[in-house]
Amino acid sequence: QWQLVESGGGLVQPGGSLRLSCAASGTFFSIATMGWYRQAPGKERELVAIFTGGGSTNYADSVKGRFTISRDNAKKMVYLQMDSLKPEDTAVYYCAADRYTDTVNRPQYWGQGTQVTVSS
Fold first, then answer.
1. For the CA atoms of 48, 53, 56, 62, what is the dihedral angle to 10 degrees?
2. Rounded to whole angstroms, how far apart are CA atoms 88 and 56?
3. CA distance 37 to 8
4. In the predicted model, what is the mean pLDDT of residues 39-50?
5. In 1-120, at which residue ranges do the beta strands (DSSP E only) sit?
6. Full strand arrangement of the beta sheet holding 77-82
7. How high is the mean pLDDT of the chain?
8. Is the dihedral of CA 36, 39, 44, 48 positive or negative?
9. Residues 6+ apart with CB under 8 A from 13
10. What's the rounded mean pLDDT across residues 97-109?
11. Residue 48's CB: how many other CB atoms inside 10 A?
């Protein structure tokens, strides 16, 4: 049984930056695929970024060049650095984990979510 806890959300102006953190518990963190999803009001949940246990990363087209996912296996932490934020990035952001595959299409664990609001 894993637990994931997000932090770092808040209010930021367009063009600003924010860094989200996800603290994980459980075994075999280093080989799990970690990801960030987001869900904006009235929209479906979408996958933003993933970081596999093998070290590969992928990003949604909407955030490429602006967001960076990283992880620290010793600390069992995953991060999402968000730069050049836009109002359309406003959403609840969720950390997710898949212990067995190199995707997070069907994660076993979810965090509670953290609100990111981009507004002037």
1. 0
2. 26
3. 15
4. 96
5. 4-7, 10-12, 18-24, 33-39, 46-51, 57-59, 67-72, 77-82, 91-98, 109-110, 114-118
6. 4-7, 18-24, 77-82, 67-72
7. 97
8. negative
9. 85, 118, 119, 120
10. 95
11. 23
